Amino acid sequence: MRVPSVGVLSLQGDFARHRASLEALGARVVRVSLPGHLEGLDALVLPGGESTTMLRLLELTGLRAPLETFARCRPVLGTCAGVILLGRDSGELPAPPLGVLDIAVERNAYGRQVDSFSTPVETAVAPGFHGVFIRAPRIRRVGPGVEVVARRAADGEPVGVRAGRAVGLCFHPELTPDLGFHRWFLAEVAGLALPGAPPRAAAGMWPGDARAGLDGEPAAAGSRGAR
Question: What are the residues whose beta carbons fall under 8 Å from the beta carbon of 69, sequence distance 6 or more?
Fold first, then answer.
């Protein structure tokens, strides 16, 4: 069986946690920081972090155009800041988002990092999943052709969407030991075979650790920044 090759945008953000989850499922993970790193990839993950910083670095590295081309024709998963990059309308940013998903996204809509939380998510993708929300965005509009794949159990608010092979999540699936969303993205969305993947388990943070920083260290109280 050919081992799938999955890229993780590694300009800034919590790419290391995504790498751990993807490798636990048997994928070969490539850190993407230059245009050439996209060559030969079966799928790509855009992690959480600072959306404004990511957009500036995409321009500086020359990744903007090739990344947009990749995201429009190949499987891509965006989480937290990643869904901001994939959206069509994400408010005031230093450069337009990629516009792959016809959604409007409000950045930092749940408050600052000290307001981070975990909560049950209603989804057929990974039943019983708890989403970790850290300075998370909100999906304010879902356009035609975009499917809602996850909602907050508390109020039914959409927190996960899909259009074709593009997926956007407002939360951090990589910060829990539940591999359900990564498995679904690779197997069902990207159509990749996963060699010997374990059942929904990975080295990661438990939902109760949502206030920790993106690198796994405790977050400084009052830290903030546009996602």
Answer: none
Question: Which of 18, 50, 174, 182 is flagged as catalytic?
Answer: 174
- pTM across the whole model: 0.86
Residues 221, 185: Cα–Cα separation, whole Å: 33
Concerning whether 80 is annotated as a catalytic residue, the answer is yes
Over the chain (227 residues), what is each successive 10-residue block's mean pLDDT? Answer: 93 93 96 97 96 95 97 97 94 90 91 81 95 94 97 96 98 95 97 72 40 34 38
Domains present along the chain, CATH in parentheses: 5-209 (3.40.50.880)
Distances (CA, A) of 202 to 86, 116, 143, 170: 26, 22, 34, 20
CA atoms of 227 and 204, how far apart (whole Å): 22
Q: Catalytic one among 80, 106, 130, 182?
A: 80
Task: Count Cβ atoms below 10 Å from residue 59 Cβ, excluding itself.
Answer: 12
